[in-house]
User: What shape does this take?
Amino acid sequence: MIPTDWPRAVAHVDADCFYAACELARRPALAGHPLAVMSSQDACVVAKTYEARARGVRTGMPVWEARRLVPDLVLLPADFRHYGLVSERLFRILRRFSPQVERYSIDEAFLDLDGLCGYFRCSHGELADRIRRTVREEVGITVSVGVSTGKVLAKMASESCKPDGTRVVPGRAIGSFLASQPVEAVPGIGPRRAALARKFGIATAAALARLDPRRVDRLLGKAGVDLWRELRGGQAFPVTVEPPVPKSVQRGASLGRRTRDARRVRAQLAHHAFRLALDLTARGLRARRLRVFLRLGDFRHVEAEVPLEEAPTADYGRIARAARRGLARLWRPGLVASGCGVAALGVEPADAPQRSLLPDADAETLPLWRAVAAIRRRHGAGAIAPACTVRPAGTRPEHRFRYPLLHAR
Assistant: This one.
């Protein structure tokens, strides 16, 4: 494997049952009860506690099936704004332990721990336990922490000690650790790849690590070779503080019920355009094109791609106008829609050099949208919004969505 125990040190921090844990932190009386969090349309389970999982509840299970399986199951609607706030508190804590933190998801992170044991005057296991204890005391949720020589082994280690555990795998322990892990426990080895590996007698992660790299390439391709290198103590995936620029950013949702009313679809698209513009602004991105898509009543999808005028943008007004142009291309009399959304394409950093000789069209509006985003983070998503995304007073809400009836200008 590797000549030393710690050529590098990487920690993987993963919250346990994150959405459900966030709910339990503000509803401690529900501790010990089977609990599940529902999707935005209350149609399926998106998270569950270990008590619910032990009784057969699974992520993605329809709510009616979960209720039938566990009659005393506590079902709560998702509150993604609250989960985002808890996530920010979690990441602020992690940055106190390492200046190099890679946000892997809303509740997962990789930390570069090289040299930090000397700084904190403790072992890797003691440092991991400090992280767990601090998160539990300050946030009210539990995390599991795995520490090893690279990201793949660290993630496998954290998965193996859930919930609320610490597992440290130094170089000398990699072989015995991998021998205890089935091949499908390797991140990136899904059911189909695992089934293929097992056909050739590769049942454990250790067996995969012992293979000749040319055979790994034949079985699993270049991605598999990168995993193989990490399993052997190498580093194919360094901790990246700055996340890569995504190819696209999408915002959309079900309409709650089918409709033939183009005004409702137009208003909901304006809402998604607003969410998309705020997301792009918060992440320091802008887009060159917009894709508008509809999910029809017969479950077909239709879409149209629209350029974002003269230059890349994150401005809500330009994105909303492009969304209306895209909808105009798609909408036909008698069309029945059940969902809609928008996707930013040709995404690039906001500080990328302009290719146009025209002045930056976002320069005047960018401070406004940054201020709007800050107000919503502090006071909630309902604190401020464009008029076209607000349901007029006195109108009836429909199935947990707000349907604005004003046209975007």
